[in-house]
Amino acid sequence: MSGNMNLTLKVWRQKNKDSKGLLETYNVKNISPDMSFLEMFDVLNEELITKGEEPIAFDHDCREGICGMCSMYINGRPHGPKRGVTTCQLHMRSFKDGDTIVVEPWRATAFPVIKDLSVDRSAFDRIIASGGFVSVNTGNARDANNIPIPKDDADTAFDAAACIGCGACVAACKNASAMLFVSAKVSQLALLPQGQPERYMRVQSMVGQMDEEGFGNCTNTGACEAECPKGISLSNIARMNRDYIAAGLGSE
Amino acid sequence: MSSFTKMFSSSIGNKILVALTGLFLCSFLIIHVSGNLQLFYHDNGMAFNTYTVFMTTNPLIKTVSYILYVSILFHAFKGLHLAYKNKKARPVSYAVTNASANSHWTSRNMGVLGTILLVFIVVHMSDFWYEYKFGHLPFVKYEKNLTTGEITSSPFQGQISGKQEQYVVEAENKEVTIVKDLYAEVQEEFKNPLMVALYVIAMAAVSFHLFHGFKSGFQTLGLNHKKYNGIIRFLALYVFAIIIPVTFAAMPVYFFLK
Questions:
Q1: Where are the domains of chain B?
Q2: Is A217's CB within 8 Å of B224's CB?
Q3: Is residue A41 part of a domain?
Q4: How many domains is chain A partitioned into structurally?
Q5: How confident is the model at residue B170 (pLDDT cuts 50, 70, 90)?
Q6: What domain range is A188 assigned to?
Q7: I need a surface site. Which of A113, A147, A222, B153 has the fewest CB within 10 A?
């Protein structure tokens, strides 16, 4: 087929959490530009299995950019060279025949490598869990739009809620800081009336859990916002800082 | 009180303290650069030397200066401490990074720029602040003709009681001022091309450090608002990254070429 390419891949191979990993070189041939980056990995893995070698472990699930599993650090950037996409949405047409592509896992103390390109992101789950509950009335379903919410607030909350928890913000940040993720999770509730009763308690516990997990400190480089596949804004971090300051100054 | 302790020992709390001290240091630079503009007067340093007396004797300014010294130390060492913790948050580094695709290099090198500035501040303060307070600077005597406004200066060998003596000789229609000659020290310092180079390099570091730092401070304090972000970016670039460092750098260059 014309337009198909041959590529050199340098992929991080690591047996398990405790072993030392290294970059292994693989040559892949006849890759269609219409394949997604993950499909190219499927092709490579098929070859490895046929040869009786251990396939490369990598996370993936929905393959439509909404699950946030496909955590690959490609040529020095999370999810590769394109903005606003996850790895499954990255196509091989973004590369040229003969390219060398370096693929590494997310690197952070809080995201230990499980195997090869697969990392443990349960730190994010623990941060969300530490946020606790939202008070809601039980009983009959309420009428739609029962609680008036300004359109701008609803939109901003929705933008924050678009976070898929992929961890690209941590991977991109030179300090491995999780501030963009945590601020998105804080903001999506802080902006809505339903989130008010526990607003200040929530920000304190989520920031506390974030610190405990061993993420770095934010230095406002903006790398997270630039690499976020869902375009989560830095203004969420400012909102979280404001809420955190208000919580610290106001609480007893 | 415990909620304060908890807040300021958290990651965000630490950063708030770095931001507050940093913005305070920014405000100090405005005063410092404005006052030092008097170095450019053609009066053999009279304005500068009398201003120095004011800055080192006024109780309000003395109080603020002690807060300033504490702020510099806190900002520098807390910043370095956070940079060290940030390194530990990623123990295995990437084989390939393409950080220029997603962030400005000034924002990624605040620790390096800040370390250059810390070294500079030590040199700067030992050359001028320490010399003025504890060194043996010569005294200078200015005689200002009250009719023509003409100023003449001459070395003064004797002793004075305080930092400054100022009196009017009515018979000769002149005002006499005797002060420590820090201006001469400045002139002497910047005859050395290495010193001039150090100052110019340090001012480049100030420019890059503040270009990111000024904006970053506001973001950390939660002050990110569509309406005001424009003015913050404007001040960061034009005032703190261009006007202030260029004016400071002009001082050693002026004395070197003088």
A1: 2-91+110-135+181-257, 138-180
A2: no
A3: yes
A4: 2
A5: confident
A6: 121-135+148-250
A7: A147
Is A140 part of any domain?
no
Q: What is the DSSP string of A74-113?
A: ETTEET-SSTT--GGG-BGGGS-TT-EEEEE---BTTB-E
pLDDT, mean of residues B221-247: 97
Residues of B in contact with A243 (CB under 8 A): 222
**pLDDT for B158:** 84
Query: Is the ipTM here above 0.85?
Result: yes
* Residue of A82, A152, A175 for testing the chain B interface, max B β-carbons within 10 Å: A175
Q: For residue A129, is pLDDT > 60?
A: yes
Q: Which of B12, B89, B103 sits opposite A216 (nearest CB)?
A: B89
Q: Is the pLDDT of residue A1 over 70?
A: no
| For testing contact with chain B, the best of A219, A228, A233 (most B CBs within 10 A) | A219
Q: What is the CATH number of the domain that holds A64?
A: 3.10.20.30
Provide the pLDDT confidence category of residue B1 given band limits of 50, 70 and 90. low
For A207, which of B10, B86, B220 is closest by C-beta distance?
A: B10
Please tell me the predicted confidence (pLDDT) of residue A2: 65
In 10 A of CB B27, how many CB atoms? 10
Q: Which residues of B touch A234 (CB under 8 A)?
A: 219, 224
Query: Cα–Cα distance between A39 and A63 in angstroms, integer?
Result: 10
A32 and A98 in a single domain? The answer is yes
User: Which two three-digit tokens encode residue A128?
Assistant: 């969300």
Burial B32-55 (b: 16+ CB within 10 A, else e): ebeeeebbeeebbbbbbbbbbbee
* Residue located via tokens 């290099």: B105
- Give the one of A77, A235, A241 whose C-beta lies nearest to B12's C-beta: A241
Q: Does the beta carbon of A31 lie under 8 angstroms from any beta carbon of chain B?
A: no
For chain A, the C-alpha Rg in angstroms (whole number) is 21
